[in-house]
Amino acid sequence: MPFFLTPEQKQSTFWLALWLAVALLLYTLGPILSPFIAAAILAYMLNGAVDRLAHARLGKSRMPRVVAVSIVLTAFFAAVIALVLVVVPVLRAEIPLLQAKIPAFFTWLDTFVSPWLAGYGINVKLDSAGLRQLIEQQVAASGDDLWTTVLAKVRVGGSALLGWIATLTLVPVVLFYLLVDWHHLLARIEGAIPRRWAQQVGGMARESDELLAQYLRGQLLVMIVLAVYYSAALAILGLDVALPVGVLTGLLGFVPYLGFGLGMLLALIAALLQFADWTGLAWVVAIYTAGQLIESFFLTPRLVGERIGLHPLAVIFALMAFGELFGFAGVLLALPASAVLMVGFRHVRTHYLRSSFYNA
Fold it and tell me: What stretches of 5-65 adopt beta strand conformation (E)?
């Protein structure tokens, strides 16, 4: 018996194939979509503030949305610039002092590390002259291959740098237009959903929006707690730059490992410059290790996971799974993506419990 498709099935097959083709095209264009994805995430985060300003009364009329968007973006980028201005003076003050301590550091290496290496048959002087001689020997041995590798790395690095510059230039432009047309774009997306699914998809979108709002509030609370913890702990240690380094570590906590890594690096440099022995470095490592453990196993699961309805074990699994699948971007988006997936899973579970397959 031949198999025929009804007209409705033909329509469904056509549109499903078309949407799959669009999804494949977007996947292929993935490398150039980064600024648009970053701008969309920022637009979602800033849209609430824009809506509040746009609904504010200016006499008898409301503030134009373009003006509200301009004010919010100005405040946002001013905060980003202020954060950069917190880091740069610390680096400018510490790097020259660090350079002055490098000879003493090499002397320490040669005094304590060289004998330990000699016990394994590795005879090398770790002072500045010995390291310079070792580097010159490696360069002479490598010859043209080394320079070929270096030039290849420079080309790749230059391409990556140009990509970052293009991304940083595009993000503010795309973000501005997304915020201005946010509700119009959402209406167009909603209008494209098949009418038979519109109500259900709309309900899932509202649930996801509520969960993501809870996630953002929880993440903000985690950042504040971390900023207070690192600032207080480094101040108790006696570090001169405890406040800027601690605040920076906390505020960058929304990017996994970036706040921890950069803050720890700055704190270690400051401790190396300020303290005469190595106990200061050990205490800095202990403070940041404890802070990372507190964030990973208590703050994020409790303050973020519970707000979006995820068990602490589910939070840890989501971070590991998304990191394995999508790398750094996956770790960054693990919890909000898990919140959205959980909404879909909840609806699938409800449908399953009502199905004849389950109840028969």
Answer: 57-58, 61-62
Measured between alpha carbons, how far is 16 from 13 in angstroms, rounded to an integer?
5
| Helix, strand, coil share (%) of the chain residues, nearest 5 | 85, 0, 15
Position 256 scores a pLDDT of 66
Query: Is the Cβ–Cβ distance between 211 and 192 less than 8 Å?
Result: no
pLDDT of residue 126: 57
Judge residue 176's burial from the number of C-beta atoms within 10 Å of its C-beta, 0-12 exposed, 13-18 middle, 19 or more buried. middle
pTM: 0.66
Reduced to 3 states (helix: H, G, I; strand: E, B; else coil), residue 58 is: strand
Using CB atoms within 10 A of its CB, is residue 153 exposed (0-12), middle (13-18) or buried (19+)?
A: exposed
Q: What are phi and psi of 58, to 5 degrees?
A: -115, 85
Which one-letter amino acid corresponds to residue 297? F
Tens digits of residue pLDDT in 257-270? 778 888 888 888 88
pLDDT digits 0-9 by tens, 235-249: 898 887 788 888 888
Q: Of 326, 327, 255, give the one whose Cα is nearest residue 295.
A: 255
CA within 13 Å, CB half, 116: 7
Q: Counting Cβ atoms within 10 Å, is residue 360 exposed (0-12), middle (13-18) or buried (19+)? A: exposed
Which of 157-167 are b and which e, b meaning 16 or more Cβ less than 10 Å from the residue's Cβ? eeeeeeeeeee
Distance CA 55, CA 68 (A): 9
Residue 216 amino acid letter = L
What is the residue type of 11?
Q
Q: What is the largest CA-CA distance in the chain?
A: 89
Average pLDDT over residues 300-304: 78
pLDDT digits (tens, 9 = 90+) for 130-149: 555 555 555 455 445 545 65
The three-state secondary structure class of 245 is: helix
Q: What is the mean pLDDT of residues 32-44?
A: 81
Whether 226 contacts 347, CB under 8 Å: no
**Closest to 245 measured CA to CA, from 230, 257, 255:** 230
- Residue 258 sits at φ, ψ, to 5 deg, of -70, -50
Residues 6 or more apart whose Cβ sits within 8 Å of residue 283: 237, 271
